[in-house]
Write a structure and sequence with these properties.
Elements lengths: L7 E3 L7 H9 L3 E3 L18 H18 L1 H5 L1
Parallel strand pairs: 1-2
Length: about 80
């Protein structure tokens, strides 16, 4: 059975965990999530991959808007 692994995992700040990041890297997956604001350890991301995360907010807001105004979309 061929199991496909994702290339990138995009999660929120709540999943900011160095051990989880290490496990995913061993499997060939990169975790794309911003660090928490009160993080004690030094940052492990340089910010280039986090630009996707900024764009994700716009997409999620668009789909939320579509759900709120579903009556207009259907008509």
């Amino acid at each position: 059975m061929d199991i496909r692994t994702p290339c990138d995992v995009d999660w929120g700040q709540s999943i900011d965990s160095d051990p989880l990041d290490a496990v995913l890297r061993c499997r060939g997956t990169e975790m794309v999530s911003p660090h928490k604001k009160n993080r004690k350890k030094p940052a492990t991301q340089d910010g280039r991959r986090l630009r996707w995360y900024k764009r994700r907010f716009k997409v999620e807001r668009f789909f939320s808007w579509c759900e709120d105004f579903r009556r207009l979309v259907v008509r």
